[in-house]
Amino acid sequence: MNERIFEGSFRAVQADDRLECGICWWVYDPAEGDDVRAIPGGTPFAELPDDWCCPGCDAPKHKFMVIAA
Prior knowledge:
mainly beta; globular; Rubrerythrin, domain 2
């Protein structure tokens, strides 16, 4: 079972955290980046451009939540 940590939670997003879209469930993995938006692997979620959005459904960044390891 995946636990999720929602925005405003007690823990800040870490550089290697994977995040899941709360709309379409697409997962951003910083190790892989985002080929659709030309984001190279190794880019932490916090370093994505402000206008970046989910490649699965165009949801904004604030709709993403951390997937607990």
